[in-house]
Design goal:
The complex is a heterodimer of chains A (114) and B (115).
Chain A (H helix, E strand, L loop, with lengths): L2 E3 L4 E5 L4 E3 L2 E3 L5 E8 L6 E7 L7 E2 L2 E6 L4 E6 L8 E9 L6 E2 L3 E6 L1
Parallel strand pairs in A: 2-12
Antiparallel strand pairs in A: 1-4, 3-9, 5-6, 5-10, 7-8, 8-9, 10-11, 10-12
Chain B lengths: L3 E4 L2 E4 L5 E7 L5 E7 L5 E9 L2 E4 L6 E3 L9 E3 L8 E8 L10 E2 L3 E5 L1
Parallel strand pairs in B: 2-11
Antiparallel strand pairs in B: 1-3, 3-8, 4-5, 4-9, 5-6, 7-8, 9-10, 9-11
């Protein structure tokens, strides 16, 4: 069974600084996707970034990038130039190719301070 | 505007009553999902449907039922058999079977409170 672990319940960062959120996962599958979702106070889940496991290049979306270490089963999210609007819960999730099930971690609450 | 809508945003129910949560999407997505979110936990899958008139149980299906009569609609009924129904419910959809675009997109959610 797949599992996703986020070991940091809460993080804080000052505006314009960089912060990294950790995520580890466990799967016996060889082909899978990894995702980071953001849930702001409105509680809408918003896709931040996704990574296909077969791709060695780390995904990047503007200020958001990942450090994907397949052998270590690690998938951390780096937020550069943090903004107040980045304040939210961040969830890491995984999905294997042969299932529609997304497996979520328990989330990291990020607070960006001015 | 393409997207996923859920209604109502807040729902109150008395113990012993069934209640139905609405989820509609106009993204032409084949697959739809229902998740439950409790404080301090990640999302847990209740039911999902990859095609009209077909659906599968997720990890916590007991006490819930769904239907998929139309591609754009996937209502969730919380029955009186659900022991602890107070939670935040999220609906999602995706283009099933297309690997490059198979990302789940979420609606704004419904907060259900049992009084």
């Amino acid at each position: 069974a797949q599992t996703v672990t986020q070991s940091q319940p809460e993080m804080s960062v000052q505006e314009a600084e960089t912060v990294t959120l950790s995520c580890t996962y466990d799967t016996s599958e060889s082909n899978y996707y990894l995702f980071w979702y953001k849930q702001p106070p409105s509680r809408q889940m918003i896709l931040v970034i996704r990574q296909e496991a077969y791709k060695q290049q780390n995904a990047t979306e503007n200020r958001f990038s990942v450090n994907f270490q397949k052998a270590a089963k690690s998938f951390s999210l780096k937020i550069s130039d943090s903004q107040l609007g980045d304040t939210a819960m961040y969830f890491c999730a995984s999905r294997s190719y042969n299932t529609d099930k997304l497996i979520f971690g328990t989330g990291t609450r990020l607070q960006v301070f001015p | 505007d393409g997207g996923i809508t859920q209604s109502p945003k807040y729902l109150f129910r008395k113990e012993g009553q069934n209640v139905t949560l609405s989820c509609e999407q106009n993204l032409n997505h084949d697959a739809m999902y229902w998740y439950r979110q409790d404080p301090g936990q990640g999302l847990r899958l209740i039911y999902y449907s990859q095609i009209v008139n077909d659906f599968q149980k997720g990890d916590i299906a007991e006490g819930y039922s769904v239907s998929r009569e139309k591609k754009e609609s996937f209502p969730l009924t919380v029955t009186s058999a659900q022991k602890n129904p107070t939670a935040f419910y999220l609906c999602a959809s995706s283009t099933a079977g297309e690997l490059d675009t198979d990302t789940q997109y979420f609606g704004p959610g419904t907060r259900l409170t049992v009084l």
